Amino acid sequence: MSDEDVQLEARLAEQEVFEPPESFVEQANVTDEGIYDEFEENWPECWEGAADLLDWEEDYDQVLDDSNPPFYEWFTDGTLNASANCLDRHLDERGDEAAIEWVGEPVEEDNITYTYEELHRKVNEFAAGLREMGVGEDDVVTMYMPMIPQLPIAMLACARIGAPHSVVFAGFSADALATRMNAADSEYLVTCDGYYRRGDPLDHLDKANEGLSGVDHEVERAIVAERLMDGDGFDHDYADNQVAFEDVIADNEGATVDPVDRDAEDMLFLMYTSGTTGKPKGVKHSTGGYLAWAAWTSQAVLDIKPEDTYFCSADIGWITGHSYIVYGPLALGTTTMMYEGTPDYPDKDRLWDIVEEYEADQLYTAPTAIRAFMKWGKEYPEKHDLSSLRLLGTVGEPINPRAWKWYYKHIGNEECPVVDTWWQTETGGMMITTLPGVKDMKPGSAGPPLPGNDVRIVDTEGEEVEPGRAGYLTVDKPWPGMLRTLYKNDERFINEYWAEYSDTDSDDSDDWVYFPEDGAKIDDDGYITVLGRVDDVINVSGHRLGTMEIESAIVGVEGVAEAAVVGGDHDIKGEAVYAYVITEDGYEEDEELRSAIIDGVEDAIGPIARPEAVIFTPELPKTRSGKIMRRLLEDIANGEELGDTSTLRNPDVVSDIETKVQGD
Ligand code: WT7
């Protein structure tokens, strides 16, 4: 490093507050600090501005109906269609502009640009096809596909005919697909033959078919998008109820489908996410409030303008991709990028190559990716001209200040604000982050709540804790993008998110408090540092995994008597899965069983849940009442000093396990 570099690093390492770069402020969508007070005083009418970003078929009567908490209704009696908002209304002015820039794995030079006109046409044709197959309003259509253009086409086609979609991440297992289709009574599936990972073709239909065989009701139709090139195909015979995506499009060439008028509260989609129990939660999102929230936050936080090329590197199989690859950006009429591959193939500068080639204005990614970029070294971004970038964002997990600063300097050249956005599948969109043209940034802290959001950090009694002290994150007021319920399970919805801090007998909205199950602390200036989950959910590379789900997969393996799963610190992934396993009598604690356990987890959930370590132990540390002391297992996984173990029924087991982990 040159002297200059050394000085710069030293300065950055010490700097705790960063002002929004002047060049950014000059052009930012939001620059008036007064927005915070204004929204507070004018709540909930402040959200009219978000609704105004959309075209409504029928105007709404009331911004918020809070008469039956926590079943809040937003923009009541308004009607609209999400696909019309994302496509049709842009045709006049932006029909020839790119809606989606799809960048494939470099198998052949086959990147595709979809103009708004072209995307609109495909969506109409596919919507016509879905209708013909019998998909009606409110029928849930499941999608199990990777980052190929047919995915957003199918999503928008569903939105057009009022059929909610339920997208299942392609990396999830066949079992996970079946569980989700069963839970949603979904009779339609859109999937694909296969795709490419680091240059190699991967079978996907096999896995989809296996999933379909686990569906407990009749599946009307499965539509298969064909991504693999000739010769790469795995031999697939389509079943009688299976049809190629391209045939559906071809059979409906030129067809148009009027966008169905949906009530603001009608379900736009379902998204399953992990919770404390083994059963995934079907988070239900609305059409009006959700879309307004996705559009408003895209504009205010990501600073998206129609002429931008915006790049979010998430997968559409997660909520980030729903809100910030598909719905938010397209509602604003911008160009949204969609990248099929991984950041390190064909080389570790792949993302920078894409940013340079497409002159991306924003990049929205995850801390786990940033930590990997850091490890690979600054020489990769330095090979490219990244000067088109104007704003950087992160989401999914806390970002450590060192990674934040690396991102700020080596990707943003100290000229781009970094927005660290805290939110969840359930919140529909961003909740806590700096407004990039208004607020100073403090690396490691997500920032203040967005205007109009009432976030408090409380103790177990619900009393606000002092600044600097750790407590529980709560949201005291509803917001348009919030989940409406858990699909067909209002009771679980209340128990999971509200019961902790609300007076559940009250019908006064003020007595209801949303609990996201995160820990956090707040500074004197209102900046919030999110500390992580406080439930039995671990965050691996920004993906949420339920420890119970993993444990039940493990105890399903022959030879396993009991299992406890915790998250251990991991340099790149943030957290990694540590599995403590007790074998059944007569089974060896050997490599064979260890790989059976790892395979069992992959089969039940998917490779993301793969245990980093499987630790055999004769016992698990338990309290006298028989509860597993997970915190202790976490400390052991992290090699930390152990606190008081005297409350344990079996304190001796701790040192045994410690010796094993250290020996691993
Ligand atoms: C959980 C939600 C939001 C889309 C991706 C994940 C953690 C998310 C941050 C952040 C600290 C964060 C929380 C949250 N999280 N963003 N900026 N700082 N933690 O969605 O799978 O629903 O997970 O991710 O723990 O509860 P999700």
TrEMBL record:
The record's top EC class is ligase
Molecular function terms, GO-annotated: 3-hydroxypropionyl-CoA synthetase activity; acetate-CoA ligase activity; AMP binding; ATP binding
Q: Where is the AMP-binding enzyme C-terminal domain?
A: 549-627
Q: Which InterPro entries match?
A: Ac_CoA_lig, ACAS_N, AMP-bd_C, AMP-bd_C_sf, AMP-binding_CS, AMP-dep_synth/lig_dom, ANL_N_sf
One GO biological process this protein is involved in is: carbon fixation by 3-hydroxypropionate cycle
Q: Which Pfam families match?
A: ACAS_N (PF16177), AMP-binding (PF00501), AMP-binding_C (PF13193)
- This entry's Enzyme Commission designation comes to 6.2.1.1
State whether keyword Nucleotide-binding applies.
yes
Q: Where is the Acetyl-coenzyme A synthetase N-terminal domain?
A: 35-86
Sorted keywords for this record are: ATP-binding, Ligase, Nucleotide-binding
Where along the sequence do coiled-coil regions lie? none
Start and end residues of each AMP-dependent synthetase/ligase domain: 88-479
Q: Which family does it belong to?
A: Belongs to the ATP-dependent AMP-binding enzyme family.
Question: PANTHER family, per this entry?
Answer: ACETYL-COENZYME A SYNTHETASE, ACETYL-COENZYME A SYNTHETASE 1
Read off the NCBIfam families from this record: Ac_CoA_lig_AcsA, PRK00174.1
Q: What name appears for this protein in its UniProt entry?
A: Acetate--CoA ligase
Q: Which organism is it from?
A: Haloarcula sebkhae
